[in-house]
């Protein structure tokens, strides 16, 4: 039996990028990551932005950009006010 049949889909992928941010599909939920809140993606190469991997239960990694985010950080960026300079 495939893991998808045992529970919910645990995949992650970037659906698209626009001038304001990017759309991330994670566990069948869409999330918008604005460049204002997530500045690491604004000037990144498109190929690197689309290269995202799932880490554990609620983590995501962009290995080409050395960016790691949690689902809580994506849903509630105001809880995590420190941002690296881009």
UniProtKB/TrEMBL annotation:
Pfam family, one: DUF2442
InterPro entries assigned to the protein according to its UniProt record, in alphabetical order: DUF2442
Protein name, per record: Uncharacterized protein DUF2442
